[in-house]
Amino acid sequence: MPHRRYQQRQARRLHRWLVPIAAAPLLLTAGTGSLYSLLLENNIDAFWLLKIHTGNFGAINLQPIYPLILGMLTVVITVSGLMLLIRTPAR
User: What is the pLDDT along the chain (91 residues), one digit of tens a residue?
Assistant: First the structure.
């Protein structure tokens, strides 16, 4: 039983470490997309927001792989969260 608690603590620690790393680009994408839409409705074309939204960060252009990165990050935090919810039966 103590080993199981140790594994659960380790899993929680890993999840707490992963979530901020994975959530940052997801929140950035959601925020820039929403802000761009709001500004565009007011006839303000902030094209630079659209570039950030799609993964073009100036010198670092992740546009070809940015959707893949966002999808993988979503799966990683979802799976790690589900693993915390699923409890294995005690032996």
Answer: 577 778 778 888 888 888 898 889 999 999 999 999 999 999 998 999 999 999 999 999 999 999 999 999 899 888 888 888 886 655 5
Per the CB < 8 A criterion, the answer to whether 85 and 8 are in contact is no
Phi and psi at residue 90, in whole multiples of 5°? -70, 145
To the question of pTM greater than 0.90 for the whole model, the response is no
Which residues are 57's β-sheet partners? Answer: 60
Output the CA torsion sign for 22, 24, 30, 36: negative
Residues 6+ apart with CB under 8 A from 39: 45, 46, 49
SS3 content of the chain, % helix, strand, coil (to 5): 75, 5, 20
